Amino acid sequence: MLIVGGGTAGWMTAASLAHRLGRLGMSITLVESSAVGTIGVGEATVPAIRRYFQSLGLDAFQVMKSTNGTVKLAIEFDGWAREGHSFLHPFGRYGLEAGPVAFHDLWNRLRSAGDAGTLDDYAMGSRLARAGRMTLPPDQPRVDFENFDWAVHFDAGRFAAYLRSFAEARGVRRIDARIAEVLRGDGESIRGVKLDNGETHEAALFIDCSGFHRLLIEKSLQSGFVDWRHWLPCDRAIALPCAHADVDAIAPYTRARALEAGWTWRIPLQNRVGNGYVYSSDHISDDAALAALRAQLEGEALAEPNLVRFRTGHVKRFWIGNCVAIGLSSGFLEPLESTSISLIQMGIDKLLHLWPDTAISPVLADEYNRLSITEFERVRDFIILHYSANGRQGELWRHCRDMPLPETLARRIAAYRARGMLLKYDLESFFEPSWLCMFGNFGIEAGSWDPLANLLPLPDLQEVTRRVREDIRRVASGCMTHREFLAKAGALA
Ligand SMILES: Cc1cc2nc3c(=O)[nH]c(=O)nc-3n(C[C@H](O)[C@H](O)[C@H](O)COP(=O)(O)OP(=O)(O)OC[C@H]3O[C@@H](n4cnc5c(N)ncnc54)[C@H](O)[C@@H]3O)c2cc1C
Description:
The protein is α+β, with helices and mostly antiparallel strands. Among the domains are: 2-70 and 154-226 and 313-373, FAD/NAD(P)-binding domain (3-Layer(bba) Sandwich); 236-309. The protein is built from 15 helices and 23 strands. Strand 4 and strand 5 form a beta hairpin. The longest helix is centred in the last third of the chain and has 27 residues, at 362-388. Bound molecules: flavin-adenine dinucleotide. Flavin-adenine dinucleotide (FAD) binds next to helix 1, strand 2, strand 14 and helix 9.
């Protein structure tokens, strides 16, 4: 088998396949080109990444130590609902449940009475994040607010290098050369690749992890592309890491701050802060975007700016013949919710699940494509919601408020407005608490709620929820600082 590309996608795939399928005696070769390089961004994850570490038998804190990793409890959305407003999207569940009544129904009822508190008040992850503190969620939560979760920020280059050692130790062969030509086989298949060192490599199965180059899946097999720019107008990003303002106070969360023509990210690692501006080139020039990004840096810039152009959407077919695209080669959604690496994981999981034996049946490809398209669409809807519900001034933001929405998203919003319902679809990356987070913080009002929530006497409900909010604040403020936590866990580099 041949993997084309040695970025995060290529090495994650190589490590997983070598670990899981090594016993089959399969040979895995990975071709990457240090002359072409990798995209060089992609440092914030979601909690699923810890499942990936586990699947390889890796200790999360060891990975963090090797990659200057930090804890990520949430994403702060600064200036999205309106200028000056900030909320967190934490991982995990909110506050409390009352038997069959969901938290959001209780919260909506309380809101109608005027003293519900903010959603952040009910999330341990949010409170810890704001306080710059961390503790591990217990294996067996005793109270509802202990159901929080966490992910990591890491240096993407170091992560790929870490996985490379892992994969090479399990027999993966690496070739550093540029692919000069992709050789087609019969029908919709690839026979091999010709390298600029004169070698030709043939294989039965190819994994295209060539990033935005899409060498196999698009350039050779002409998959076609589903373009979502009309819903997500940002098409460029500039990345520029800088030094920490205060290395002792590393925030355990990502920040996404809305600006005139898009938004900036701030991803704190142990040794530096990753920054970037994701923007619409119809609404700001590259020079102006860079100037706006520089104006936000909290410390000295540590590299030259990295300008990335991208198309939002996905290839029409992720698996064609004997070629499967994983990572940026398969599609891209802007990093507002840090979903690309988790989409890589989903690609690997599906591939392992549908792993072909000797012949590659088209049924496998069809199933892979069906699942991948739905997974991408689910993430797409969640990201669009951030834009469509914004309360900002400016042309880009007005456009996003007025644009027609995908039918699946419009239905979710209508269900919440009608009766505070959080619809559940299959193959979701984001569950009820995440949708509630967006609806609640963007000021989308629920017209009513589960009538069972009305059976609880209002003063009792107010008293219970007040205590829960107080408990969360008290417990969070008593936890270790983020740095103390990293040190104790053995995760400091
Ligand atoms: C601005 C931005 C911010 C992002 N932030 C996040 C984030 O916070 N969280 C997240 O989960 N994801 C994020 N992502 C996505 C994330 O960067 C990618 O999912 C991840 O890095 C995987 O990239 P990749 O391996 O698919 O591609 P790449 O890193 O581009 O790797 C492509 C590989 O293909 C090789 N290659 C290409 N052409 C040839 C050739 N001709 N011959 C030989 N080799 C070749 C290259 O050498 C390289 O090894 C972000 C993306 C962008 C654009």
